[in-house]
Predict the structure.
Amino acid sequence: MGPGRGGRTPEGPEAKPGGEAGADRPDGAAGPELARAVLDAAKARRQAAAGTRRRSAVRGDGEKRLRGYSGPGPDPRDPQPLGAVLDKLVKARGWQQPAAEATVFGAWERVVGEEVAQHSRPVKLENGELTVEARSTAWATQLRLLAGSLLKQIASEVGHNVVRKLHIHGPAAPSWSRGPRRVRGRGPRDTYG
């Protein structure tokens, strides 16, 4: 290749015999050795910079862990139990009070005990006042006597200030009145006819 065809002239630094091109370099490297040295230095700088930048998580034992590495130990990206996820959601949305009220109705047997639950059922919870219907008037009387301990049991199960007062009544009597209009009278008697 001659100088007139776009090639290099033999007078350039690459044409000097004996590696004199690297003579002005402090390490004296030339050609492939110089390229290898520059590449190694760049790799070392990149790894050093990435190592300081990528350290973020500190595990419980104080050892640092690379970001993006899941390794042994808990990681916030690990699968979570459904109950823990629901607890976080309930707290984030402010659903503690409705969830506690739902527990009173949904888990009545667990809240008050098996024997009491067999003879009573919650009817309405409004403004912290729980209405409970007993199976019989005798059980209604018994539950009125146990109201203080029932309130403590409910508070220990669902939290304080969910139920502040109990209204306990016996079974509802059947109503003979139907419709919006009624006639005053003595009501049903022992015979029909």
The CA atoms of residues 58 and 69 lie 12 Å apart. The first strand starts at residue 55 and ends at 58. The longest helix spans residues 32-54.
